[in-house]
């Protein structure tokens, strides 16, 4: 895959997992450049010039959403994170909290204090990164409205409750792939098709769902063709219109 939108090879070191953004065992990060490319492709497919309400229903640590909020504040109205795992929601709340008023300033102060107490250059570097991210977020529009909610991505009723008060028009999610993450919950056997079906019941027909999986391609969904698909490294990406998943007209460019 050649990058169409994120064509510059920027320095993303300030966004490294485990520095300013928090991490934990079992919660993998995500390639920043690929995240930006997928989001911009979904935004382009959705069409229009307005900012997006972005949802990750398999949010894990919230890393992907937090990175996109920092990189694309001007293109985002609000962020919604949901997951079935309570530990994930705790970590996602901490990471997305960086996008709240004073979030990055508080994180920078915490890291600077650790640098003084433990005399570790890594903490000082992370504190400086937090300050740079704080300035960037302020310049791009300031705090990002967001919510972190518990929901089984395979349960339409739970997704509907999670989305209350929001009108997501773009979904970007890195689905469980069985190495560090896996499908869980009462409906785990439904996997990717079950997730897409459940999301389609909540989203407007023209909403775009960007699915990222490990492997050469996103597994086929019976009777539904993705609007776009691509592959980079060990990951495959497919973009669907929500209406295509349940037979509703999806008015996309």
UniProtKB/TrEMBL annotation:
<protein>
    <recommendedName>
        <fullName>rRNA methyltransferase</fullName>
    </recommendedName>
</protein>
<dbReference type="InterPro" id="IPR029063">
    <property type="entry name" value="SAM-dependent_MTases_sf"/>
</dbReference>
<dbReference type="InterPro" id="IPR024268">
    <property type="entry name" value="AviRa"/>
</dbReference>
<dbReference type="Pfam" id="PF11599">
    <property type="entry name" value="AviRa"/>
</dbReference>
């Amino acid at each position: 895959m050649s990058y169409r939108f994120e064509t510059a090879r920027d320095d993303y070191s300030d966004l490294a997992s485990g520095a300013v953004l928090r991490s934990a065992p079992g919660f993998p990060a995500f390639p920043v450049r690929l995240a930006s490319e997928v989001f911009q492709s979904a935004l382009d497919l959705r069409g229009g010039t307005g900012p997006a309400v972005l949802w990750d229903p398999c949010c894990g640590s919230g890393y992907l959403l937090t990175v996109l909020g920092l990189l694309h504040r001007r293109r985002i109205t609000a962020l919604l994170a949901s997951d079935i795992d309570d530990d994930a929601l705790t970590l996602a709340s901490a990471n997305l909290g960086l996008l709240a008023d004073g979030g990055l300033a508080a994180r920078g102060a915490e890291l600077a204090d650790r640098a003084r107490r433990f005399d570790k250059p890594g903490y000082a570097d992370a504190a400086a990164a937090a300050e740079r991210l704080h300035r960037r977020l302020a310049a791009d529009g300031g705090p990002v409205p967001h919510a972190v909610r518990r929901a089984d991505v395979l349960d339409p009723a739970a997704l509907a409750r999670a989305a209350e008060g929001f009108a997501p028009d773009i979904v970007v999610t890195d689905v469980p792939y069985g190495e560090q993450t896996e499908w869980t919950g009462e409906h785990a056997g439904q996997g990717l098709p079950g997730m897409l079906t459940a999301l389609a019941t909540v989203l407007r027909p023209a909403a775009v769902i960007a699915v990222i999986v490990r492997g050469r391609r996103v597994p086929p969904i019976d009777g539904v063709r993705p609007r776009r698909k691509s592959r980079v490294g060990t990951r495959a990406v497919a973009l669907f219109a929500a209406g295509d998943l349940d037979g509703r007209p999806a008015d996309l460019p």
